[in-house]
Design goal:
It is a single chain. It is built from 14 helices and 25 strands. The protein is of the alpha+beta class and about 525 residues long. The protein has three domains: about 210 residues, Roll (Pnp Oxidase, Chain A); about 130 residues, UbiD C-terminal domain-like (3-Layer(aba) Sandwich), CATH 3.40.1670; about 60 residues, Orthogonal Bundle (Arc Repressor Mutant, subunit A). The strands form six sheets. Strands 5, 6, 7, 8, 9, 10, 11, 14 and 17 form a nine-stranded antiparallel beta sheet that branches. Strand 12 and strand 13 form a beta hairpin.
Amino acid sequence: MSADFRDFLQSLRAHDELLEIKKAIDLRNVAALVPQSDKALIFTSVQGYSMPVVSGLLNSRNRMSLGMGVPYAKIEEKLRSAMAHPIPPGLVERAPVKEVVHTGEEVDLFNLPIPIFSLLDGGPMITGGVIIAEDGDYGLNAGMYRLMLKEKNKTGIDIVTPNNLRKFAERALQSKKPLPISVAIGVHPYEMVASTFKAALGTNELTYAGGLRGEPLELACGETVPVPCIADAEIVLEGEIIPEGWTQPEGPFCEFNRLMGGVHYNPRVRFTAIMHRRDAIFYALHMPWEKIWMSAPIYEAAAWRVLQEAGVTATAINVTPGGCCHWHIIAAIRKQPGDGKNAILALLSIADIKHVVVTDDDIDIFDPVDVEWAIATRVQADRDVMIVSNARSKPLDPSLPPGAGIPTTAKMGIDATVPENVPRERYQRIVYMNEGRAQLKDYLGEPGIARPRAAQSFDGETLENLAKDIFQAVRTAPMHFAELLERFSDESCPRIARAVGLLYQEQRIIQDKAGKLTPREGTAQGQV
């Protein structure tokens, strides 16, 4: 199937989700304009550069959906299927990204339109690159990591947190060898989502990209490094992580948590080649929302998997944007006794997940009011709040005290399911009579010509007859008052109310534990 970066841009154009800016623009202004648009933006005349710049491609759920080829709610399902049926990549001899190749002294990163995003950025940042590396024991690995431009052929690389690329770099450093990498800029969302997934060490995320495509992702051999690159990318940088360790300051930069990150010590990369299409487009992934929306399906797929492995039946998963689609999960389950706590333990085991709420399947977990209601009405803190101390954390959590090394965090789960020792009947929701049938629109506007109303009869004989019929009905099966109104729909509300009142007055009926009207015990059958 055709699925490269340009196909994605064409899909956005076809769905009116890409706006072309033809006026000349200073690179300083790109980042500020993207959040003002409800569409992705492509700048075709960037002052001082020959390449157009595109940004905001994944800034909305709808554009994520277009990129992944399914409704947004189905992305995680498609990703889980790709993980269950991975397809290894294949090598090709001819690669569109090799139409132009610069090596040696021709390598000049300053020719690329790499933008500054925020006021406090440490420098221009490459944000949308898929990095491929290879380890002798663990094979190929793909991930997305930012690169801060420093010199014409050098950048920093942000691998301060524990991840597979850091592991590769540490192993290379121990051998005092550089780690070759390729950086693909401008690839299809399939590759971006797959490479963002936190796979186990030794798993090649590019096989997930193949699973998403339904065919192998095409790779091309490196020109100056012994690792492949994505053949149909817009731009590929080849280089090596210098074996000098985490010695160079890098950052700050705007992060997925919607805050500015700090300065971290990171390795540097020395680049040996720049390859690109003749009419290449530079992709500037806009932080934080492009990263946030891309993260949600990844964590949702992980959540479905761990709950299945825990034997808990989930009905809905919500990795919330308020939690930066990274730290918070709300899960609705079809509960068996103990499942609430088991679900919490399973979900808190996922990478950086910090807070979890588990609800019953009657809760709309995409409605924050409904979730808060579940917490308010179903939770006893000393019984239903679980806290795990000293769990692995991500340094970008601003609530953690600053310090050296990788910090740990406290994780919390809230079991907002109906307690096992509380009758489910206590949680009967309000449902209005004729809800869904009575429509406001039918009662708006000017009234038509009213028909003469028939006089209502409240004389004793007619009420007695109606009371007799009601008594016979509730004797057959106890009924709520609303059920009587439905059963005797040809009668008016006031007549039914008076007839029921007569039965109460004569002590013929009473309410059962469910509130239904039923004959009073000891009443002679048939007596009215």
